[in-house]
Amino acid sequence: MRGPAGFFLCSLLLAAPHYTEVAAQDVQPDPKTPCANWMGGAPGYPGHNGLPGRDGKDGKDGLKGEKGEEGVQGPKGDPGDIGVPGREGPRGIPGYPGQKGQKGEGAFIYRSAFSVGLKERAPHPNVPIRFSKIFYNEQSHYDASTGKFLCSIPGMYYFAYHLTVYLSDVKVSLYKKDKAVIFTYDQFQKNNVDQASGSVLLHLSTGDEVWLQVYGEGDNNGVYADNINDSTFMGFLLYPDLDVH
């Protein structure tokens, strides 16, 4: 067969095996199905859960969030125990001097004192010795005309006397309110000048008198004084009675 019809026939014959091969490839059975796609069975049961996988690596920190609103203040707690005292801090710098205060009263606002000496050589016995040489008598609590000290401020007083002894023995006593408190005796040694002394603490009330006098006869009146030898008598207030002043 020649001509165009023959050429067409030859073409069909050559293409037939190719289409048969394509058809055969389209109908291949699924290897996963038991019956190769021509007889499907029932679905199987789900398998068991597998073991958990291992923990993954920690992720990176995220961005810092915004600050939240302040919460409501809670109730006040119980006081805690007192802690151990801390170490002493460093010494501070000295401050500036303060203003000068007002002048206060003196510590010794009550004063009473005297110091006197003898002028005449032999005072009369059994009467107060009148010491008329005044060393100190600012408050005038000692009376030179009587030889007596008059207490104006009640309190504790100290009295003392130092007498020069010459020509005869000396016996003297210190009196308080017509009563002898202490006695002093000194025996004179010929061709010599001696000393006799005594002292005492006395509590006096207002109006009490204190003085010194020779007791006995004239043979015991060797109290002496001249321009180079003194016989002295003194007394002063130690402290007043606070309940009175």
UniProtKB/TrEMBL annotation:
Task: Name one cellular component (GO) term.
Answer: collagen trimer
* Name of the protein in its database record: ADIPO protein
Stretches for region Disordered: 38-102
Q: Which UniProt keywords apply?
A: Collagen, Hydroxylation, Secreted, Signal
- Localization annotation: Secreted
Q: Please indicate if the UniProt record lists Signal as a keyword.
A: yes
Task: Please report the stretch or stretches of sequence annotated as the C1q domain.
Answer: 107-244
Spell out the Basic and acidic residues composition-biased ranges.
54-70
Q: What Pfam family is a match for this entry?
A: C1q
Q: What is its main location?
A: secreted
Q: Which residues form the signal peptide?
A: 1-24
- Tell me the organism's taxonomic lineage: Eukaryota, Metazoa, Chordata, Craniata, Vertebrata
This protein's superkingdom?
A: Eukaryota
What gene makes this protein?
Adipoq
